[in-house]
TrEMBL record:
This is Tyrosine--tRNA ligase. A motif ('HIGH' region) lies at residues 53-62. It comes from Aporhodopirellula rubra. One of its GO terms (molecular function) is ATP binding. Residues 355-441 form the Tyrosine--tRNA ligase SYY-like C-terminal domain. Keywords: Aminoacyl-tRNA synthetase, ATP-binding, Cytoplasm, Ligase, Nucleotide-binding, Protein biosynthesis, RNA-binding. One of its GO terms (biological process) is tyrosyl-tRNA aminoacylation. PANTHER family: TYROSINE--TRNA LIGASE, MITOCHONDRIAL, TYROSYL-TRNA SYNTHETASE. The keyword Cell division does not apply.
Length: 449
């Protein structure tokens, strides 16, 4: 049933590509739609999107951009994923309300490496994994062309082409100038670096298209102006809308912070759960923006979501698609297995850590080795300790009514004692009353109550 997203499908034509971006709602602003259409149908093009490495991992916020590059690659164009080793040293003020701290060179290198590895999930790079197409993706780092550029030369070549008046008119600059936080000269100059990247890539790689999120419009158009002045060539830009919830919040954030692509930071299970729990009002937009699920299926899922609110068929499909892409078959399997356990499935050889993660939000009670030694801990008592039943009578009745489970297996004997072997080599036991009322018994060294 899992359908792994592969790149090697037949290439859609240019019309198909633009139509697809349109129905998905991915075209927020375009500098010259007609011109871009013509350029794309004149033959394979090169398109770039830049990513500043602000952490060792990308998060959900970058996925729309990576998917945009992927859509172009599938349509036969060459994507360039640019990691901003240089721009990351400065910090883009676009969409940011405060001046940012500078990252150290060592941290930046770690970030560049981490982010580059994740991009391989989305794009097929030239000469890697046996990719033989002519449009292999390129991974470039703007530090490579900026590190040797002297300040004086840069001011003479690039700075000279920037009218300060125009720079002051950009949204990213205006909003900060009017704020208390202000804007340093360093961040004010960020736009020159990104603009120059575009010119550099147009010269070195024939790249004439830059895409980005809607907050990148100012930087992208700055590059187009610079290209006209420095090379006389017409460059193109397009932006995608930002991925926000229906009440206007940025997607990809939970109470515990960002949803990361790195499985060490956000496990495949937590990643999967994030998408399963997207609101009905947001799920179809996520599917359109982030997946390659096609129009027919999209329409079906939209109808189902409308007709049976709360069924979450669209959410599950979204979660399955995204988790398979980012974490592979193994990731989606473990996420789905964990989800089944949450819904009463067998524990099998689920590990301690996995159980603790699946039931992270469930109340728990510590017990000591003493309590399970000898005769063990009476189930009726355990249920009360864990807060699942408020009296011995209630606990006994629940067992009789067949609504008590230990590690998702029904407990039928009210005399049952919880003993060491019930832990199955783990340090937690999952107790359940009824369908979804869970509690954990955690075995801790030393004292307990
Ligand atoms: N400014 C972009 C990243 C970027 C960096 C360099 C570029 O050439 C293009 C884009 C961002 O913050 O998302």
């Amino acid at each position: 049933m899992t359908q792994s997203p592969e790149l090697n499908d037949a290439s859609p034509s240019t019309d198909d590509l633009l139509n697809e971006l349109r129905w998905r709602g991915l075209l927020h602003q375009i500098t010259d739609e007609e011109g871009l259409g013509k350029l794309l149908s004149s033959g394979p093009q090169t398109i770039y999107i830049g990513f500043d490495p602000t952490a060792t991992s990308l998060h959900v916020g970058s996925m729309m951009q990576l998917m945009m590059l992927r859509r172009f690659q599938r349509a036969g164009h060459r994507p360039i994923a640019l990691v901003g080793g240089a721009t990351g040293m400065i910090g883009d003020p676009s969409g940011k309300s405060e001046e940012r701290n500078l990252l150290s060179a060592e941290q930046l290198q770690l970030n560049v490496d981490g982010v580059a590895a994740q991009m391989r999930r989305f794009l097929q790079f030239e000469g890697e994994d046996g990719f033989e197409g002519k449009n292999g993706a390129l991974l470039l780092n703007n530090f490579d062309w900026m590190q040797g550029y002297s300040y004086l030369e840069f001011l003479r070549d690039v700075g000279k082409n920037f009218p300060v008046g125009t720079m002051m008119g950009k949204e990213s600059v205006r909003s900060r100038l009017n704020s208390e936080a202000g804007l340093s000269y360093t961040e004010f100059s960020y736009m020159l670096l990104q603009a120059y990247d575009f010119v550099h890539l147009s010269r070195e790689h024939g790249c004439r298209i830059q895409a980005g999120g809607s907050d990148q419009w100012g930087n992208i158009t700055a590059g187009i102006d610079l290209g006209r002045r420095m090379t006389g060539q017409q460059l193109f830009g397009l932006t995608a809308p930002l991925l926000t919830t229906s009440d206007g919040k940025k997607m990809g954030k939970t109470e515990n912070g960002a949803v990361w692509l790195d499985p060490e930071r956000t496990s495949p299970y937590a990643f999967y759960q994030y998408w399963v729990n997207v609101a009905d009002d947001d799920v179809m937009r996520c599917i359109a923006y982030l997946t390659e699920i096609e129009k027919d299926e999209y329409d079906e899922l939209a109808e189902r979501t409308e007709q049976s609110a709360g069924e979450r068929a669209a959410q599950k499909r979204l979660a399955q698609w995204m988790t398979t892409l980012v974490h592979g078959e193994e990731g989606i399997e473990s996420a789905q297995r964990a989800t089944q356990i949450l819904f009463g499935g067998e524990l099998g050889n689920t590990t301690d850590d996995q159980l603790r993660e699946i039931f992270a939000d469930v109340p728990s009670c510590d017990i000591s080795q003493d309590q399970i030694d000898g005769d063990g801990l009476w189930i009726v008592e355990a249920l009360q300790l864990a807060g699942l039943c408020s009296s011995g009578g209630e606990a006994r009745r629940s067992v009789k009514e067949n609504s008590i489970y230990l590690n998702n297996c029904r407990v039928t004997d009210e005399q049952k004692r919880v003993v060491g072997s019930d832990f199955d080599g783990r340090s937690v036991i999952v107790l359940r009353r009824g369908k979804r009322k869970y509690a954990l018994l955690k075995l801790v060294a030393g004292a307990a109550n």
